[in-house]
Input
Amino acid sequence: MKIKIALAQFNTKLGDVNANLHKHLTLIDQARQQKADLVIFPELSLTGYALLDLVADAAIRPHEDDPVFNELLGASRDIDLMVGFVHEDRRHRFYIAAAYLAEGKISHIHNKIYLPTYGMFDEGRFFAPGDSVRAFDTRFGRVGMLICEDFWHASLPYLLWLDGADILLFSSASPGRGLTHEPRLSSSEWVEHTNRAYAGLFTNFVAHANRVGYEDGLNFWGGSTIFDPNGDLVVRAPDFEDTLTVADIDLNQLHRSRARLPLLRDERTILVQRELERILGKS
Amino acid sequence: MINLNINTQLTEKILTGFIRSELNRVGFKRALLGVSGGIDSAVSLYLSAKALGPENVLGIRMPYKTSPQHTLDDAQTMIDALGVQSMTVEITDMVDPLVAKFDDVSKLRAGNIMARMRMIVLFDQSVAFNGLVMGSSNKTELLLGYSTIFGDSAAALQPIGDLYKTQVRQLARHLGVPEAVISKAPSADLWEGQTDEGELGYTYADVDQLLYLLVDQRYRPETCVEEGFDPTFVERVVHRMRQNHFKRVMPPIAKLSQRTIGYDFLYLRDWGT
Output
């Protein structure tokens, strides 16, 4: 089975949810015309990244009664969507979140677990951290979503893999940094190496949508990618360009890769559990 | 290993994108800047012309009566080569009457007055030209505080503020800045015979390496000494960085209310754009 994934590598308007919704709907239309099955939007795609005190103003209750979600749910009737937003829960906590929408319904919401609060990042000041990670079922099989810093921690992709995810969907708003003599920024190289490693180590598909544009002096480098279960690059969007990149992935590749390299079959989860319990002093 | 080499093509791409984005999102398409004939303003000028098109850039020469003719000529050569708009506003008639009001105006004060008169010309012309003032401060000078506050450091954008002086030289070569501009001794030209390196007491080549360790690589000063840097040099640079930090931040606001600008009223400048 082949599916067509669209990576919506675009620029947002900082704090203007309606303007960003409009961009989403335009990109979804373009993806639909190219017969895509799934569109992946970057982290905080409905709001922009460095919100600071705009967080509460830009927050959304993900429900069909919300006018923004209502539009997106409508758009998801014939094409699956992964969108990024500020999630306000019933107790008015604010999360960086990704929602998977399909057939007019919300399939899953992931609240970002690891909030970088160091260096140029200050997410922990403005957001609550998510506290669970779950794979979920789609019409293409079981998938898992993570947001930026989440996949700088190897434990989360690992847990999603064990929870049955064969496709990892990553979103980020990654500020470019690390200018050297090399043709790409260190940050771009680092993220791409990591994603390739997850694809190879888990014999999984890894699709990553990263945004472009600028917020004050921060640049966002794009370079969205899909890697296949052999760790081979399926597609890479150009760095810094506003693009919708569409590529086919062949889900039968999972069969072939795992027949050759049975890493999932051989994974010793009971051993992991036992050793973790020992390390954490539980036994 | 200290390697300050940069990929100049990538740098150009990021910085021209930055200039376009930060102007266009607030409704501007034009930029203007002072062109001294030195390398920093040259690089800002070339980047602006590439980002916005030469017709949307205004280069202003602002000589004082002691400014050497060759710097004015170098500035004009670059303005002509790029085809940007240009004007020359002599600041002598603005500077001298203020200096003449006092008996004891030092070189430093006079130099600061010149830098601030140039700022006045630029911000006035920004209204007439309907453009934003492009800065030319590099990372070395920002860290050392080698600038006049509200003078040459005043700008709407600082495209080269994260590049050390030695990196600005690499970018200048890539952008096609004339070799005469790249290779001459850097000078603020605030008085005759002034050079940056003479005034600072060390070379950019040396201080850039030290700053890279201290700032980018988070070395402690004593570790820099262990790495072979002269202890007095390290101490002078660290002191200068700390002493001039006030030039890099907004003036502190005394907090009284529940919500105060700078402390808990936090937005990017690009808010809503």
